[in-house]
Design goal:
The chain crosses the membrane at residues 89-112. With 113 residues, this protein is of the alpha+beta class. The protein has helices at 11-16, 22-25, 31-38, 96-112, and strands spanning 51-56, 61-67, 74-80. It has 4 helices and 3 strands.
Length: 113
């Protein structure tokens, strides 16, 4: 019969312990999924791979076009629902209609640039 052995995490364990990336620890970035989003085909030399990002928060809706660089992601174009009051929509900046209007504003910005 085997006895109970307590697992001891001693100084040697913590000395060799490597912490995860900060954004992984915060739970903000899934690097496995990000790699699949960002990685470019090998036959498209130095061509940026654009992606559309839509974020919904309690106060705002954000639409962005971004691509990855070594220094960090570069934002090409962005539209925010807090810009909608300039166009006559003053309240409800996070509802379904505001999301639609933010998308329209985003398309307008892309067409201009």
């Amino acid at each position: 019969m085997l006895g109970f052995v307590k697992v001891v995490k001693n100084k040697a364990y913590f000395k060799r312990y490597q912490v995860k990336f900060r954004r992984r620890r915060e739970g903000k970035t899934d690097y496995f999924a990000r790699k699949r989003l960002v990685i470019q085909d090998k036959n498209k030399y130095n061509t940026p791979k654009y992606r559309m990002i839509v974020r919904l928060s309690n106060r705002d809706i954000v639409c962005q076009i971004a691509y990855a660089k070594i220094e960090g992601d570069a934002i090409v174009c962005a539209a925010y629902s807090h810009e909608l009051p300039k166009y006559g929509i003053a309240v409800g900046l996070t509802n379904y209609a505001a999301a639609y209007c933010t998308g329209l504003l985003f398309i307008l910005y892309i067409a201009i640039s």
